[in-house]
Model the fold of this input.
Amino acid sequence: MVQYIVLVITFQLLFLAIYDLFLKKETFFQSNRVYLIGTFLVSLFLPFVKLPVFKTVVSQQYAAIVLDEIVLTANSSQAAESSFPWLKVLFVIGAVISFALFVYKIYQIIKLKQAGEKQKFTDYIKVTIPKSNNAFSFYNTVFMGDAVTKENEEGILEHELVHVKQKHTLDLLFFEVMRIALWFNPLVYIYQNRIAEVHEFIADSKVKKTSKKEQYELLLSQIFETKNISFINHFYKSSLIKKRIVMLQKSKSSKVLKLKYLALVPLVAGMLFYTSCETEKETEIDAVEAKTEVVVETVDVPFSVVEEVPVFPGCEDALETRDCFNEQIREHIRKNFNYPEEAQKEGVQGRVSVRFVIQEDGSVEDIQMRGPDVRLEEEAMRIIKLLPKFTPGKQRGHNVRVPFSLPITFRLQ
Done:
């Protein structure tokens, strides 16, 4: 799960960098709207895509994400006993708070709609807000403060109706839902901010065609109240006014500049290559052993290349069984670890290389250890023997023996 989140954030950061560097200042507003929503969705699904054309095995030496050595300190066993899923609890708390804020914002809009005077038209509803200079739209409703002058109302209404007709609220609501699910990801907020900017540029460009540009710019430069709700289209939003005026004065971008969107091609190709790569999880020694096993035509298939990896109990429904296997192995070792007392007193520490084979029936056998002290090897052996029975790995539809290796480092604090 952590690996997935890291990949999503990394991909989104790269997509936003392309947008801010090459596309943000161009007048391809509709294309930019598609770009922002599209790249956000792509970033969510891309980590699951593994294309055979890009499939390769990356050695541990060059891999960015591998099963690193597990470091166990003298007090790790105590920490395991008092372990608590703080990250999960924190995630749930954050999501609940974000959802509560979302509900409160909806309540604010409902309250304003109930308090205002409603007028129904063919394509929209107009709500006049008493004692207010506010002006904004939400889905098919345009909210207009009764303090807005009739002279200004026409231009504002024309602008807000663009939001209504193009259903800009759906874009903002999409990112609002993402803010609940991914509240810890700052890039969601940046995406929502960028799409809100594009919405205003789109509406302004439509109004500019039918209204006198100088009068419209004067209208924008006036100071009005704004509601601090992230998923409504504000007419007067102080942080956007200057950008909107600058964009109104900007000449239409040449169509040839649309070639900038081609920057996505090598970027996405690189992402696909990365997600399609398989990481070699064995150490260099184990890789040599694996090659030897293939040469003598045994039934052993290394964990890094077996078609269906052994399944750790509880990982049956995981999207990535390899990642789940690695996470559960780590968790198992931490929970069952006890630093040998004599080794602590004598200051014995170091790395134990562990190798075992998951048999055709899912049992763990052929456990091998190599470390600096027999007591550390015995502790590592004890932990591995406590491993549960796995769902066996498969190659070409047949159960096979799957060797697995990992380094465990015993460290005194």
Remarks:
- The two ends are 29 Å apart (CA to CA).
- Confidence is low (pLDDT under 50) at residues 57-68, 76-82, 279-297.
